[in-house]
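Q: Second attempt. The first request was missing the SMILES, so the protein and calcium ion are both included now.
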Amino acid sequence: MQIRRIFTRTMISLAFCLLTPWQGGANHAQEDIPIFTEAKVAVTVIHALDTGIYTYQYTLTNPPANTTEIDGFSMNISLSPSGLLLPTMGLTLDRGNRSDGTRHLVSFEDDVKDLIDLSAFVPAVPVGTMMPSVSDLWTSVSVIGKLLWSPHPRVPPGTSHGPLQVFSPGLPTIRSFQIEPDFYPTMEPGDCPEDQECGDNEESAEGDFLILNQLIIRGKTLGPTAPPADFNPLTFIETIRGYITESQTLGWLTDANLSSALNGHLNTAAEAIPTGDIATAKLAIEAFIAALPVPPLATAVCRSECSGLLVFNAQYLLDRLPKEPDLIVTNVTASANSVQSGGIFSVTTTIRNQGGGMANASFAHILFSPDTTIDLTDRFLSDFSVPVIGIGQTQTITTTPSIPNDISPGNYTLMACADITGIIAEIDETNNCKEGEQVTVNAPPPPTNDEISEATLITSFPFPDHYTINRHVQSENL
Ligand SMILES: [Ca+2]
Ligand SMILES: [Ca+2]
Ligand SMILES: [Ca+2]
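A: Got both inputs this time. The predicted holo structure:
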């Protein structure tokens, strides 16, 4: 549009200068200034899970109160310096219908090759493929990241035009747009040909540009941006938090309670991630998404801009949280703090899956350690099976291990470890053990005051030469 417009303006300017240079000062603007006080752009965003491509659909509306047509829509889609470099291969620009009815399509690379050194070409826009869906349209993308659409015919008052579509792997972000009326300054300021006397015409052109600048309707909408090159979940949570604030300012999100709830979910996730509690972060982000309409749907308090911006960015974050389980022992407790070698006691162990994926069934074990670290000198007491544990879920299991007869009396630290056989691939394999309380192991006292609690006389016929007596001896002190 810009190229065409400059061309058109130049032609008009030349016509003025060549044909009626003395009338160049006639004030076109005062006669033709249209009423153009309101125009809207609505956007919806759709995400294709199989390709990862986001489709941005824009509809322009020219309200009936205006007296002129919409001539163009432009949007800043410049690449963020901290963003991933997205390929522009396949980015296609639509230049409208040819005379034979076919579409005139040009590749972005072809379009910019005269402007830049292609050997040093780096993608300038976060748009991988692009094809406007409507005919009668003229599209361009500048190397600095300005997307321009010029509908043809132009959009009259009281009508809408669209959807204009952008296909991009770029995430939704807040972009500035302009809607321009059908109002042409007579010429570009300073464009008067050297061999002409343009006089007042040039001053009038400057005045016209001032008027055009006031007529242009500016606003914010959604457009693609490159995902961050160095993805950090905590930084990204702050990006989403900023989107909530700006959505409120722009009137896309009008429910203060909903905003507060959304920020609460982000707070929960931001506190959980540094502790390794991915499960809590994941559940919080899922709750964040569940609180919003599914894009491209909107509600009275969350417009399509709100749902597209917040849901797809939250989904992006969710997709990048670790998907493996992470088992940890959150508690291990003994039924007694003093036991006797050869005796039994009960131990209750709680295992939590704080990871981002379900943990299959596994085995855990209980140890006595003379110190507070797990090593080969520790005494194994028992192992037990642990059932499947869902994301953020726990299992509490009580076992009754026997204390070995030959364990040395003394103080031991009770310890429990998850996934001792290593069958679960986890986010963190080094956090599976936890120490419990100190347990004192006492040696059994020597038997005293033996009692015969039971005696059996083995007899047979004929009577043998001698008898065998089996005797069970129990210590009173046991
Ligand atoms: Ca673990
Ligand atoms: Ca140890
Ligand atoms: Ca493991």
